[in-house]
Amino acid sequence: MAWLDELIKPLSEPSAWSYRPGGPTAVEPIALAVLAMVGHGKMADAGEALDELSKLQAPDGSFGIYQGEPAGAPHWTTAFAALALVAAERELLEADARRARFRAAVVAADKFLLEKIPSTVFDRTDEISHDTTLHGWPWVAGTHSWLEPTAMALLALKASGMRGHPRSDEALKLIVDRLLPEGGCNHGNTFVLGQSLVPHLQPTGIVMLVLAGEPVKDPRVAKSLDYLARALDATTTAASLAYALMGLAAHGRTPANALELLEGATRKPTFELGASVPRRSLIALAALGDRSPLIKLSREGAPQ
Amino acid sequence: MTSVDRVIPANPVTPANPVSRTEQLSDTSAAANVPAELALAGRLDRRALLLSAGAAAAGVAVFPFVRQAVAGTSPVFIARNQNYDGKLEQTIRDGLMATGVNPDDFKGRRVLLKPNMVEPMRGNPQMTTNPRMVVAVAEIFRRAGAIVTVGEAPGHVRDTEMALVESRMAEALIDAKLPFADLNYEESRFVSNGGGLSVLPGFYFPKSVAEADLIVSMPKMKTHHWVGVTMSMKNLYGTLPGNRYGWPKNVLHHAGIPNTVVDINASLPKSIAVVDAIECMEGDGPILGSSKMMGLVLVGADRLAVDATAARIMGFDPLKLDYMRMAHDLNFGRLNDWQIRQRGEDWKPLYSPFKVLNKQFLRDMQTKEAVEKTS
Predict the structure, then answer these.
(1) Are B120 and B154 in contact (CB under 8 A)?
(2) What is the mean pLDDT of residues B217-241?
């Protein structure tokens, strides 16, 4: 597929490692670029990006948004970096010296995720219906847990074989608790002041991705997958589309027109608006279907 | 030494939009959490704040809205019978001129337009600023020779492309060849807290915000189920990047919504308000409320005066809205009706109470008459 090749080829260039053209290298975009290259069997091309990503790790094991973040800055990006390094490590030959380096980096990142990003819980109230007593992961240390950082941190722990950790169990419980009654989820609120909120594709896709292989019997999971399948169409924008398709693929429900939708998303005039660079990696990842490294890591990390 | 109002979260760990309460703390206690210079800034009046901030930014002191602020009253312009197919550019230009903002003063300067695109859904146009309003303001400043950018950090969604498409902003920006700054992911710069009401020492503002010579806050006139109304001051929450504050911007919620609203505004002195009050939202705002047609456009350089006027039209008592009262106490702008000079239409004939969720704390923010009319 020429369009996909064109999308993947520049991922090895530093220009693909920032949020916007000409911007500084940032952890989330470079981690997504590495994951896409690894998934497409381009390990040789990913070498420079992996070296650069490794350099972004702070001595405490964290990965901030950019290199050299001040104390107290957010570190939700640590999970993205850990996932990229695990995916790469698995593709390296036994004798490759980088394996040990990546493993050490992942161990430090996981330790940081488990010990250094506290979330805040509080007593349940009538005003907010989700279980506010559960710990997951916040966007910023010390604040409440929300779905995307919790799902990505859980996915990173699953990738490292730590699904059995108590934090993983609680995170899974939190994720299921935050699903909307009719399926899907938003950033992580369900009912506020008695009013049910509306779902969105990106968070729902991410949550379905992390639930791959999990023995969750809650009917809202099937409803969420139905929502994803129903809501996707030619108007769906790139990031939402990519995560939604990964969520569906993680449960064996890739739609027949997935590649057509993905190619269409890259042709939209809006594709270049805003923080556009990471969209290329996300589209490339979603084009892998269930061969995406994120799906493999989620499935293999689930309880067997 | 007098005491000051200091709002702290009702529940210090509330995750999403905590309801706040007011506690009386001494000056000493209030200042304990912030550096001395910020605590002092918190007691400066609007004039001093503007002038001191302006002195730090070359050329700002010549801007008309700064000159305007030295007067004891603030003008607020209201236009009625407006619609999105009408002559918005002319209306808004009239409003700017009537409130002391001459677009020609911004020739060669950077003007950032900040609409509200919190969680857009195509079927709910009452939630987000109408793109035609944004293009109209852009044309006014572009014709004057300003460098115009539209920027927003959608508060609830990570996929900014989706927010642009669902709000129909994308096609408008592309048609008008207007650049868009994705404030959720732009590199940011730390700016000291200009208000000092919250515990936050400062804010990370995206480059497009920090470097703007003028920010035009372009909110939708809406009810808000935690703080009563959301208008030009609350809209500036969307200048802060999600990658540093979260989706939602929970760091601000934990520090208290009303005090961070004031702090952010006090940290962005070079801002004015142009309110899309044509199709508005009542009930369960700011996301799930119903459409209410008002046909109004409000304009002003004093954001508090604009927001207070809008609140009065909606049936709220501005002094009962925590962030407006706190801004008033800080002398950030004019809140009292007698200090606001109405340009264009007077607000009183336009009064049309907005419905709110049937919660006592929201009823307490409405005027007695509005409670009766909307119950």
Answers:
(1) yes
(2) 97
Mutation for B interface: A207, A267, A273, most B CBs within 10 A: A273
Classified as helix, coil or strand, A252 is: coil
| φ, ψ for residue B346, nearest 5 deg | -80, 145
* B53 contacts B206 by C-beta, under 8 angstroms: no
Residue B71: per-residue pLDDT: 54
Distances (CA, A) of A168 to A135, A163, A165, A224, B125: 10, 6, 5, 21, 40
Q: Which of A143-147, A267-271, B43-47 has the lowest mean pLDDT?
A: B43-47
Instruction: Say what the pLDDT of residue B72 is.
Output: 87
Which residues from B are below 8 Å from A132, CB to CB?
13, 15
**Mean pLDDT for chain B?**
84
Q: How far apart are CA B313 and CA B310, in angstroms?
A: 5
- Say how far apart CA A214 and CA A157 lie, in whole Å: 14
DSSP class of residue A91 equals: H
> How far apart (Å, rounded) are the C-alpha atoms in residues B149 and B142?
10
CB B5 within 8 A of CB B24: yes
Contact B14 A121 (CB under 8 A): no
- Among residues B255, B194, B237, B201, the alpha carbon closest in space to that of B8 is found at B255
Decide if pLDDT at B58 tops 90.
Answer: no
Q: How confident is the model over B68-119, as pLDDT tens digits?
A: 444 589 999 999 999 999 999 999 999 999 999 999 999 999 999 999 999 9
Predicted TM-score (pTM) of this structure: 0.90
What would the two tokens of residue A129 be? 């219906």
* Per-residue pLDDT at B247 exceeds 80: yes
Whether the predicted pLDDT of B53 surpasses 50: no
Q: A8 vs B46, which has greater pLDDT?
A: A8
Put simply, the answer to whether B161 touches A270 (Cβ < 8 Å) is yes
The pLDDT of B212-229, averaged and rounded, is 97
**How many residues does this entry show for chain A?**
304
Q: Residue A6 has which token pair? A: 């064109």
C-alpha dihedral sign at B287, B293, B295, B296: negative
Percent of chain B clearing pLDDT 90 (strictly above):
79
| Nearest C-alpha neighbor of B36 from the set B193, B184, B255, B219 | B193
SS3 at position B73: coil
CA angle B32, B34, B38 (to 5 degrees): 125
Place of tokens 């799902």: A151
Dump pLDDT digits (tens) for A207-228.
999 999 999 999 999 999 999 9
Inter-chain CB proximity A122 and B182 less than 8 Å: no
CA distance A118 to B134: 40
What residues in A contact B186, CB-CB < 8 Å? 19-20, 23, 275
Question: Which residues sit opposite B114 in a β-bridge?
Answer: B217
> What tokens does A60 get?
């405490």
What single string gives the DSSP state of each residue in B263-332?
Answer: HHHHH--SEEEEEEEEEEEEBSTTTS-EEEEEEEEEEES-HHHHHHHHHHHHTB-GGGSHHHHHHHHTT-
Q: How far apart are CA B285 and CA B269, in angstroms?
A: 27
Bridge partners, residue B22, by sequence? B7
